[in-house]
Amino acid sequence: MGIFEREQISRSIINLEWTKHIEMGSQKESIGHQKDISALDIDEGDQMIIMASHCGQVSVANYKYLGREKWKKPMTLKLEHNALQTIKWCPLDLRLFMVTTKSNWMRVCDSTMEKVINGAQFEGDVYFHWNEHNMTNSKVAVADGSRSMKIVDFRVGLSLPQNIRWDDVPIDVVQWFPSRHHYLYAGRRDGKIGIFDVRSTRGVLAEKTIHTAPIFGIRVSKDGRRLITADRSGRIHVADTWNFQTKFQYRDEFDLHPRRRPVFEILSGKDLFVATNFHRLTVVKFDESRRIKVTESVEIAPRVLKNKPIVFRESSYELIAGHTFNYLNVLSLAKSREYVDEEEEASGLL
User: Fold this and answer.
1) Are 16 and 298 in contact (CB under 8 A)?
2) What CA dihedral angle connects 129, 133, 134 and 138, to 10 degrees?
3) N or C, fewer C-beta in 10 Å, the chain?
4) Angle at CA 80, nearest 5°, toward 78 and 85?
């Protein structure tokens, strides 16, 4: 994709529209994903989509075959009656993926052997982040609402994690820094964020109270410059990763139902885009290219999607979201007439 096209997409990415509504399996033929979609992920190559359901079913689909009814059988993982809440590919080994359950289990699974190879139960709702930047010994950071976060080293096992305590306040979210694989961010239930060096016993290196409600999500932009957090009052906060200085803020309505499991995903490049399902599915654009910082947002889906998983497909600037039952929706860039004219004019100049 050329620079001109990327700039045009960055300028108008919130002008999106649903382009695909795809059934991911057939109950009649007993193939494909036949249950609801409670969790969703796509691999680093933007090809293999993995889906999970509230009844424990896990399925894989190739992006290029979406809508062609080339379904695969669901995996035989023996996770029946496990309400799966999150699912993530291992960034270093595509054979492996990890799931979390409503009963606070975290399990490591092998997609080729179709079996669970390791697992552990934690104290509360499991939030984890796989360190994809340490190529020799990738570790997983886990927050479970307890007073300490856990660092899991698979050479030792899930049952013997390194515990890092931060005062006496529950820790709900964790995120590794992109390039320095020993730096770890954490978010507490009282709205404070902090950064730790997991090699050190010094404790928190820097901390700041940013939110006034419990934090449910935390991300770091790919360039390592921005820390994005979201809380249960409907607020998204974008800060500098080192001094936590506020760069952007956005607030939306939020459904306070205790069973709500809000999610948000980011797409970072020239601008920063955040997709969230606070009250309904919404895309927010934080534009740093102008002298005056600009925040734009658009609500792009009805409330039926507020509980559904979402994931960005970065290579095509698409947003994939779960829908009712076993359907996926794909949100793509809607090319305006102005965009098409500019694109044709540029191609004529080449």
Assistant:
1) yes
2) 30
3) C
4) 105
pLDDT in tens, 31-68: 888 889 999 999 989 999 999 999 999 999 999 988 88
SS3 label, residue 162: strand
Task: Select from 282, 271, 281, 186 the least CA-distant residue to 221.
Answer: 271
Helix, strand counts (H, E) of the chain: 2, 29
- How many angstroms separate the CA atoms of 340 and 230, rounded? 35
Cβ contact 265:225 at 8 Å = no
Element (H, E) at 95: none
Please tell me the distance from the alpha carbon of residue 307 to that of residue 85, in angstroms, as a whole number: 11
CA 147 to chain CA centroid, nearest Å: 24
Full strand arrangement of the beta sheet holding 48-52: 39-42, 48-52, 58-62
* DSSP state letters, 111-155: TTTTEEEEEEE-SS--EEEE--S-SSS-EEEEE-SSSEEEEEETT
